[in-house]
Amino acid sequence: MKRALFPGSFDPLTLGHYDIIKRGVTLFDEVIVAIGVNADKKYMFSLEERKKFIEEAFADEPKIKVVTYKGLTVDFCKKIDVGFILRGLRNPADFEFEKAIAHTNRDLAPIETVFLLTSARTSYIASSIVRDVIRNSGDYTKLVPDSVRVK
Ligand code: ADP
């Protein structure tokens, strides 16, 4: 069974992530959305909220799982026996950043990183921009799945 880990902060899940995950399940038998827990990082949404947003967005999709993890992504992949890491690419800056991470991961473990190019419609969306819109009381609902709502 071909399984891929889609790691990230998902603070919050955006339509960009949603697009990559949906297309990921056409390539893999299972896509595991993995929320990385970094104790030093300040998040807008709690871990529980971020997890709930993703679970609700894919409630009807049995091939998509949501987990949380600490530590190195490749160590977590080995632990749960996943052979692929899935990442999205928006622009040249993403490519340079992702290239360095993918090379490092390959040095650490025999795990392949698979990249999907973002859809044109969602290529400008980033969680940081969504957070900025939310902080300034703008309409963020066009940038995120319906499950992502601020209380
Ligand atoms: P990180 O904190 O690691 O940047 P994110 O949750 O922001 O995590 O992103 C996780 C993955 O989703 C990364 O591969 C990132 O490139 C991808 N991604 C984020 N936004 C988009 C988008 N709009 N289109 C495609 N991929 C995206």
UniProtKB/TrEMBL annotation:
> Which SUPFAM superfamilies does the record associate with it?
Nucleotidylyl transferase
Q: Where in the cell is it found?
A: Cytoplasm
- Kindly list the residues the record flags as site (Transition state stabilizer): H17
Which enzyme type, at the first EC level? transferase
Task: Report the cofactors.
Answer: Mg(2+)
Record pathway: Cofactor biosynthesis; coenzyme A biosynthesis; CoA from (R)-pantothenate: step 4/5
Indicate whether Ion transport appears among the record's keywords.
no
The answer to keyword Nucleotidyltransferase applying to this record is: yes
- Which E.C. number(s) belong to this protein? 2.7.7.3
InterPro entries documented for this protein: Cyt_trans-like, PPAT, Rossmann-like_a/b/a_fold
* Catalyzed reaction equations: (R)-4'-phosphopantetheine + ATP + H(+) = 3'-dephospho-CoA + diphosphate
Q: Which domain of life is it from?
A: Bacteria
Where the protein is mainly located, per its record? Answer: cytoplasm
Cytidyltransferase-like domain sequence ranges: 5-132
Q: Where does substrate bind?
A: S9, K41, T73, R87
What's a Pfam family in this record?
CTP_transf_like
A GO molecular function assigned to this protein is: pantetheine-phosphate adenylyltransferase activity
Its family?
Belongs to the bacterial CoaD family.
Question: Assembly state and interactors?
Answer: Homohexamer.
Q: What is this protein called?
A: Phosphopantetheine adenylyltransferase
**Gene that specifies this protein:** coaD
